[in-house]
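dude i think i finally got it to work??
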Amino acid sequence: MVSREFKEAVKRFSKPQYQLAWEAEVHPVVLSQIITGYIKPRYGDERVVRIGRLLGLEPSECFEGRSQ
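look at this
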């Protein structure tokens, strides 16, 4: 599951959410589903990691629970 910090960073991002998704090579619908919890990515999911990098987050900051 993605962290609260990840969700808040998406909201604070200077560009629209769909642009963030395209820049991370993720479909905007998938990003929306990750944020709302419809899709529950596993720790280390590359889609979330790519989005997190654009947001200035370390991979471990993008996920709840486990840390590596």
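The helical segments are 4-12, 17-23, 28-36, 46-55.
im so relieved honestly
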